[in-house]
Write a structure and sequence with these properties.
By secondary structure, the chain is an alpha+beta fold. The chain is 31% helix and 27% strand.
Length: 113
């Protein structure tokens, strides 16, 4: 994790800090995605192509993952909310992340690259 990312995560309160740190680890270590940071936002790549980013809204403390090719798969937890290409997956920081479900989505999307 670069210094900017570390500083950004350390400014967050719990449980948001732990959720974002977990997602970062999960994407990089378990799913094999590469990370790049822009504007305090972690972007993830596969095969050098943009795959997803994790969004945190400090105003309402909302956390979600935007998947670039999300519109190309059908999954009940992915929502478009008017987006044409991306679909998002909401994370509730008060509940355990369903890693099996998230892994299934990521594996399905990785086949499109």
């Amino acid at each position: 994790m670069n210094q900017t990312a570390n500083n950004f995560f350390l400014t967050l309160t719990e449980p948001h800090q732990s959720v974002l740190l977990f997602l970062q680890h999960f994407f990089k270590q378990e799913m094999g995605l590469e990370e790049s940071w822009k504007n305090n936002t972690p972007f993830y790549y596969t095969k050098k192509k943009w795959f997803a980013f994790i969004s945190y809204n400090p105003k309402n403390h909302e956390i979600y993952i935007s998947f670039v090719k999300g519109s190309k798969i059908d999954h009940p937890k992915l929502v478009s909310e008017g987006r044409k290409q991306m679909k998002i997956y909401y994370i509730n920081p008060e509940k355990d992340i369903n890693t099996k479900e998230l892994k299934k989505i990521i594996m399905q999307l990785k086949t499109l690259y």
